[in-house]
Design a protein that fits this description.
5 helices; about 200 residues; Alpha-Beta Plaits; about 30% strand; single chain; alpha+beta; 9 strands; 2 domains
Length: about 200
């Protein structure tokens, strides 16, 4: 039976008393564990049902410890292939887990109330969003852009990697930016696992 990869986590955070979500098991190499589930060895389409299941599994493990989420649809032919992959990329995966440990992701989107065609357009919106997101970057470990204003190319949405213990402080800063620009809306979602900050080398 082939295995679909949900992500990678630290083994010691998921001891014998922590039951994995239904359909998920761990393939362990030293202190790392690949989170996997049974699958056909075929191209896996990212249907809404599969994405929802994937999100549930990753979120369940992320509540206990750091997780590196895998792209949806990654399938290994068998257990040994997963084991070899963990061994091959052990150092990079360990370093990445250490980097995101005790950190969560906030996604912030800036938009203007009004007709749909005006919500994410305009140089004034872009300028205000640029300044506010610049302020928010100072409250985060790092950030990546998600969406841009279609004319200026200035970022309107971004993901921020935030220290878990400072999550409330970051939320208060987002609220403060909203108060400073009452004609705009600042939408904060999260905390999320670090979906936006992980790129995996999947060759075995």
């Amino acid at each position: 039976m082939a295995l679909t990869l949900y992500g990678v986590t630290f083994t010691d955070a998921h001891g014998n008393h922590a039951e994995p979500p239904a359909g998920a098991t761990l393939v362990v190499v030293r202190d790392l564990a690949a989170i996997v589930g049974e699958s056909e060895y075929a191209v896996v389409e990212p249907t809404a049902e599969r994405v929802a299941q994937y999100t549930d599994v990753v979120s369940a493990f992320a509540r206990r410890a750091a997780v590196l989420p895998a792209p949806v649809g990654v399938v290994f032919k068998h257990n040994d292939a997963v084991h070899r992959w963990l061994e091959l990329h052990y150092v990079a995966l360990s370093d990445a887990l250490s980097f995101v440990d005790n950190r969560v992701v906030a996604r912030v989107h800036v938009w203007r109330p009004g007709p749909p065609e005006d919500r994410e357009a305009g140089s004034d919106l872009a300028a205000a969003a640029a300044e506010s997101l610049r302020v928010l970057r100072r409250a985060a470990v790092t950030t990546v852009p998600l969406r841009v204003e279609k004319v200026t190319g200035i970022v309107l949405s971004a993901a921020f990697l935030v220290e878990e213990e400072l999550w409330k402080d970051f939320g208060h800063e987002v609220e403060e930016q909203g108060r400073r620009t009452p004609n705009l809306r600042f939408e904060l979602t999260g905390p999320w696992p670090p979906y936006d900050f992980i790129q995996m080398q999947l060759a075995t």
